[in-house]
Amino acid sequence: MGGGVIAIRPFADDASDDAVLAGNTICYGATGGRLFVAGRVGERFCVRNSGAVAVVEGAGDHFCEYMTGGIAVAMGPVGWNAGAGMTGGVAYVTEWRQLNADSVTVREVPAEDAAELRALVEEHHRRTGSPRAAAMLAGWEHSVKTFRQMVPVAAVPAQAAPEPAPVAEGRETAARP
């Protein structure tokens, strides 16, 4: 993907609230464009993304692996090995099974980035009619607190202590050796 906009939503009569709407390796090597999926996607989402903006409602394993640029938003759970080898760009996640702690860290969404995240959720809602996005926007003050910004370890200044990795229902992280 090098440009344009793709919006994917379920059929109007689809009653599933957790549909998988797209497969594996979406936005692999993307250099630009925008993608909005009102459902989950498969494994290796945004691998080697260097410039695309993508918003989904969940993803499989290896989310944002080797990502060098762009923005990825997951408004639902992502699988194992999120952010492995990620050296650039930014991702926003609400739930994860395991982060690759050698490559990435998570922190609260910085105030200066919260408006951009909200704008992406708003665009996702406009383009897909996502009920999940509508619910998040209706209670944005709470919703923004459920997101974490995932960034490469190298992007975090040495003097800043990263947020401790949460270990709670739906949020597990890999222990550093």
What does this structure look like?
With 177 residues, the chain is of the alpha/beta class. It is built from three helices and nine strands, in the order ββββββββαααβ. The chain has a seven-stranded mixed β-sheet. The longest helix is centred in the last third of the chain and has 18 residues, at 111-128.
SSE order and pairing:
Blueprint: E1 2-8, E2 20-22, E3 32-37, E4 40-41, E5 50-56, E6 68-78, E7 88-96, E8 104-108, H1 111-128, H2 131-138, H3 140-146, E9 148-152
Parallel strand pairs: 1-3, 2-4, 3-5, 5-6, 6-7
Antiparallel strand pairs: 7-9, 8-9
Helix pairs in contact: 1-2, 2-3
Labels describing this entry:
177 residues; alpha/beta; Pectate Lyase C-like; seven-stranded mixed β-sheet; two-stranded parallel sheet; 9 strands; disordered C terminus
CATH topology: Pectate Lyase C-like
* Tally of contiguous helical segments: 3
**What is the averaged pLDDT score?**
90
> Shape from CA axes?
globular
Q: Tell me the total number of β-strands.
A: 9
CATH class: Mainly Beta
Element-by-element helix/strand order? EEEEEEEEHHHE
Rg result = 15 Å
Terminus-to-terminus distance: 37 Å
CATH architecture: 3 Solenoid
CATH H-level homologous superfamily name: Glutamate synthase, alpha subunit, C-terminal domain
Low-pLDDT segments: 172-177
Spatial order of the strands in the main sheet? Answer: 1-3-5-6-7-9-8
Instruction: Report the structural category.
Output: alpha/beta
**Number of self-contained structural domains:** 1
Largest sheet: 7 strands, mixed
